[in-house]
TrEMBL record:
Residues given in the record as CoA binding sites: 199-202, 323, 535
Chain positions with N6-acetyllysine modification: 628
Name the record gives this protein: Acetyl-coenzyme A synthetase
Gene name, Swiss-Prot/TrEMBL: acsA
Sorted UniProt keywords: Acetylation, ATP-binding, Ligase, Magnesium, Metal-binding, Nucleotide-binding
Length: 666
């Protein structure tokens, strides 16, 4: 383990949290989830998933094999079945007579709207698939998608799936450099982007980042990208590369509305999604088709109690993250849900925008992140009180531990003290929800994700991989394969094995600390590795450190995630400047300039989401005798705590030096 083992500051509170909210009899009576599911899955876990795969997914060729774990840790689920993800998400609903059902209520940030039925979606996805095929995309290819939250984003993902090409969505908040390395790693043939999107009341350009990402660079191989397909959204001016760039509306509108889906094997790649790891290079998490669709559909139906005929579902995530993949695109559409997609930020043009949208569309299931709930708490409960939220009946939380205070506020203010809250634990790697209460079944506890879902084997172990007793704490692990598990890291099988399967041989190490309470319920306590969680976004300390040292001002850098009231953690960087710049930091003006330069530099290297909140210039960094930076001590400084045990430092005076330097009046 690294020395950066973190215990959440709210751990003490969590351990004293004893409130529980049993489901109402009315909710339990109508719920999709039933207590018997746990027994069925316990009796035969593999058969349980086979049943879900048959019930929730349509197969072109039915599978006869369920799980093949002989190639562990790369699983095969339903391997001899064939299917198509886009057909499952769209066409089969139209064939079942549900073509007129609204699939998407789109709400643009400026207030423009668009209603898309399943029949509309079938036409759009088919045309887009034909357009992509015309541009040379074939089954097995990779397509990078760099788009804002638009209907076209969903259509683009499904068009790839329809062709059997893997999509790799890159969040619009990542920089040109980050985009470039992901395009190269995936070996993408096509990039789908937009001129821009609306963000905080203004158009925000995207196309220039794609142009920069594809520009020739000395010493680097030529890009694999043949075409760039550009959605017109903001009508900003764009640079145009003749022969390479193609307008989406021209290509898609010219294409035929019929397209025969590519029937692929269950283990055919569906997507690659890059996520931060403990080293500098992002990992391309690979997901395949049959198992992923089975578990996203199952969890979406049961964890959110989706009643497809009557519910209006809204997940506030961006499609650039796995939550958007599993709980905007695949889970909801497989289940024939009606959902809201919103382009913008929660406070544009006013801080009640989300609640206005809930009222407008009668949203009944709402899924968001603790950081957003904490921001709303800060803005004040009089804001949601102005809107009619009585349509809400299930609330979900994801992305980071939710503190009991935020959970209680969510339930009382947004859920009128009535709605179940599902705190869902999962990861990009797990593909779908793994640990969560089941609404109508579980008595919920504020701050706990509680129970592994039926068919999921999750537990908490100590350093020697022994399961801890109730009341004990340790590391969260997954001890049996599950259908939507990652099938590897794109192009790096060894890293896949090292990262997840070597800490405890044969079982999956999630990287999270956890504890079991006296009832055996699981409480997540945050990451135990060098991964930070800022506003529910995963960032790597080492990745930001290498971005900082790539600037000529910086000799050395150490980054920590410090506790933050709203974002959960905030990025705090400690930097040692190169000799010739060290003096500049001595003045207010100089240090402000350095701070701005470095924050902008990180934004350029990784993206605005990775910008350090604070940059502290120091003369030394605390290191062990073997040269490892003791981030734990820096976190103490960043969180204004008394510095912990520093006896393993090579030079024990370093912490005093750092603190004295920071305390100096500027
Ligand atoms: C990490 C995964 C899952 C989609 C969004 C994030 C943390 C996620 C919870 C939760 C406590 C949570 C974990 C996990 N996390 N959900 N309900 N309670 N922690 O996906 O970017 O892959 O990050 O997010 O630390 O390891 P991700």
């Amino acid at each position: 383990m690294t020395d950066s083992h973190s215990t959440s500051p709210s751990l003490e509170n969590l351990l004293h949290e004893t409130r529980a909210f049993p489901p109402s009899p009315e909710f339990a009576a109508q719920a999709n989830a039933q207590p018997s599911m746990y027994d069925e899955a316990a009796a035969d876990r593999v058969e349980f998933w086979a049943r879900q795969a048959r019930e929730l997914v349509s197969w072109k060729t039915p599978f006869t094999q369920t799980l093949d774990w002989s190639g562990a840790p790369v699983a095969k689920w339903f391997a001899d079945g064939t299917l198509n993800a886009a057909y499952n998400a769209v066409d089969r609903h139209v064939e079942a007579g549900l073509g007129d059902r609204v699939a998407i209520h789109f709400e643009g940030e400026p207030g423009d709207t668009r209603t898309v039925t399943y029949a509309d979606l079938q036409r759009e996805v088919s045309r887009a698939a034909n357009a992509l095929a015309t541009l040379g995309v074939e089954s097995g290819d990779r397509v990078v998608i760099y788009l804002p939250m638009l209907v076209e984003s969903v259509v683009a993902m499904l068009a790839c799936a329809r062709l059997g090409a893997a999509h790799s969505v890159v969040f619009g908040g990542f920089s040109a450099d980050a985009l470039r390395s992901r395009i190269a790693d995936a070996g993408a043939k096509l990039v789908i982007t937009a001129d821009g999107g609306y963000r905080r009341g203004a158009p925000s350009a995207l196309k220039p980042a794609v142009d920069a990402a594809l520009a020739a660079k000395e010493g680097e191989p030529a890009t694999t990208v043949e075409h760039v397909l550009v959605v017109r959204r903001t009508e900003q001016d764009v640079e145009w590369t003749q022969g390479r760039d193609v307008w989406w509306h021209e290509a898609v509108e010219a294409a035929d509305t019929f397209h025969e889906p590519a029937w692929v094997d269950a283990e055919h790649p569906l997507f690659i999604l890059y996520t931060s790891g403990t080293t500098g290079k992002p990992k391309g998490i690979l997901h395949t088709t049959g198992g992923y669709l089975t578990q996203t559909a199952f969890t979406h139906k049961n964890v959110f109690d989706l009643q497809a005929e009557s519910d209006v579902y809204w997940c506030t995530a961006d499609i650039g993250w796995v939550t958007g993949h599993s709980y905007i695109v695949y889970g909801p559409l497989l289940n024939g849900a009606t959902q809201v997609i919103y382009e913008g930020t929660p406070d544009t043009p006013h801080r009640g925008r989300w609640w206005e949208i809930v009222q407008k569309y009668g949203v009944s299931i709402f899924y968001t992140a603790p950081t957003a709930i904490r921001a709303c708490m800060k803005w004040g409960e009089e804001i949601p009180a102005e809107f009619d939220l009585s349509s809400l009946r299930v609330l979900g939380s994801v992305g980071e531990p939710i503190n009991p205070e935020a959970w209680m506020w969510y339930r009382r203010v947004i859920g009128s003290d009535r709605t179940p809250i599902v705190d869902t634990w999962w990861q990009t790697e797990t593909g779908a929800i793994m640990i969560s209460p089941l609404p109508g079944v579980t008595a919920t506890k504020p701050g706990s994700a509680q129970v592994p879902l039926p068919g999921i084997a999750a537990t908490v172990v100590d350093d020697e991989a022994n399961p801890v007793p109730d009341g004990g704490g340790g590391y969260l692990v997954l001890s049996e394969p599950w259908p939507s598990m990652l099938r590897g890291i794109w192009g790096d099988l060894q890293r896949f094995k090292d990262t997840y399967w070597s800490r405890f041989p044969g079982i999956y190490f999630a990287g999270d600390g956890a504890k079991k309470d006296e009832d055996g319920d699981i409480w997540l306590l945050g990451r135990v590795d060098d991964v930070m969680n800022v506003s529910g976004h995963r960032l790597s300390t080492t990745e930001i450190e290498s971005a900082l040292v790539s600037n000529e001002l910086v000799a050395e850098a150490a980054v920590v995630g410090a506790a933050d009231d709203v974002s959960g953690q905030a990025v705090v960087a400690f930097v040692i400047l190169r000799g010739e710049h060290a003096d500049e930091a001595g003045t207010d003006e100089g240090s402000a300039r350095i701070e701005k330069t470095l924050r902008d530099h990180v934004a350029q290297e990784i993206g605005p989401i990775a910008k350090p909140k604070r940059i502290l210039v120091v003369a030394e960094l605390p290191k062990t005798r073997s040269g490892k930076i003791m981030r734990r001590l820096l976190r103490d400084v960043a969180e204004n705590r008394e510095v912990g045990d520093a006896t393993t430092l090579a030079d024990s005076s370093v912490m005093n030096l750092i603190q004295a330097g920071l305390a100096k009046p500027a």
